[in-house]
Design a protein that fits this description.
Layout (H helix, E strand, L loop, with lengths): L1 H7 L1 H12 L1 H6 L42 E3 L8 E14 L4 E13 L2 E15 L1 H5 L5 H9 L1 H23 L4 E5 L14 H10 L3 E6 L5 H6 L10 E4 L1 H7 L6 E6 L7 E6 L2 H11 L2 E2 L2 E2 H10 L3 H14 L10 H6 L5
Helix pairs in contact: 1-2, 5-6, 6-7
Length: about 350
């Protein structure tokens, strides 16, 4: 009976042979599993590959930095100042034989004296990236080729340059204000020389502005461990992590901290141009904080997010304004994977 099955179905025979071929054993031994070291460990299970953090932290034993870390309390400074938060998003809209069409939206949200003030939407703005566009962008040759070949690089280029343009204008015209940035203050290879992060920081210093870059998460596990003492502090506080960041990452601007902006709120990374304690105190005194995150940054994110209506309108605009011919197209992933495509 078995012989007949293997003769009629070669796949059945192949499935029985995996063990004989040593494939399972080979996969198991491609790295040392070390599963015995898992015993007795504290553990947090991932959810759809998202970054998960323990509510009460990992505990002081898990971190060699904790013992030498000083926790500094943040006290709100009731001195009125304008807070301006910037965020953006970019999407690929279409492509031609020679290039691709992208769109960007920027959001600016402001607060003053502890209350939301007003918000602005910039865009959607369209950019067609082709060889001629990249030639005029002052990008290094290898990076320019990657931008043309990789949509993620292209969207990153547009997003970085658009955000830097907005940040430069705000830093050059505001005085005694706080400029909030979504993400770390790290120079990017995509920056325009005239609107680099370094020049924006210089403008902030000259006009007595403070700039704070707030990251919602970090890929550096050592920062999570270093921030463990913040979970035990009842109110807003920060821990300096300059030595860790500067030792691991190049081209960062300003000082580096791990901060908690509210009781029982998530711990965030904050890069700061200006006096650290003053900047965080002024932020708490002028920007409403809900769930441990500045309201201006949350609003700027929502303003800059593309909706299905945005995409439909942009498509109609391109068809009606640029004398293009739309070609029928198929989703390759759906064609290959069918209903199981995700």
């Amino acid at each position: 009976m078995t012989n007949m099955a293997t003769q009629l179905n070669p796949l059945f025979h192949a499935s029985l042979s995996l063990g004989d071929l040593g494939i399972v054993e080979s996969v198991s031994n491609c790295l040392a599993p070390k599963l015995d070291e898992l015993k007795g460990k504290k553990i947090v299970f991932s959810c759809d590959d998202k970054k998960m953090i323990p509510v009460d932290g990992w505990g002081l034993r898990s971190n060699s930095y904790s013992a030498a870390t000083t926790v500094t309390t943040i006290r709100p400074i009731k001195e009125n100042a304008l807070v301006a938060a910037i965020d953006s998003s970019s999407v690929k809209l279409a492509e031609t034989e020679e290039g691709s069409l992208y769109a960007i939206k920027c959001g600016i949200a402001t607060a003053y004296a502890g209350r939301a003030l007003m918000h602005f939407k910039i865009g959607p703005v369209l950019f067609y990236l082709s060889e001629s566009t990249i030639r005029d962008s002052d990008l290094e040759d290898r990076l320019a080729k990657l931008v043309l070949l990789d949509d993620d690089f292209a969207k990153r280029l547009i997003r970085v340059r658009a955000e830097r343009a907005v940040q430069k204008e705000l830093a050059s015209h505001f005085t005694n204000s706080i400029i909030l940035v979504d993400g770390s203050l790290k120079a990017s290879v995509f920056e325009d020389r005239e609107r680099s992060l370094g020049k924006i920081a210089e403008s902030c210093v000259l006009r007595k502005n403070m700039m704070i870059g707030i990251s919602k998460g970090t890929r550096l596990k050592v920062l999570e461990r270093a921030a463990a003492p913040l979970t035990k502090v009842p109110g807003p506080a920060y821990i300096e992590v300059d030595m860790i960041i500067k030792g691991l990452i190049r081209n960062t601007v300003g000082s580096n901290s791990m901060v908690k902006l509210e009781k029982n709120s998530p711990i965030l990374r904050a890069d700061i141009v200006g006096n650290r304690t003053e900047a965080l105190g002024m932020l708490l005194g002028n920007d409403p904080v809900a769930g441990g995150y500045p309201e201006t940054l949350r609003l700027a994110h929502y303003i800059s997010t593309f909706t299905s209506t945005d995409m439909t309108c942009l498509r109609s605009h391109v068809l009606n304004s640029y004398d293009v011919t739309e070609l029928a197209a198929d989703d390759i992933r759906s064609m290959l994977l069918g209903s199981i495509s995700v």
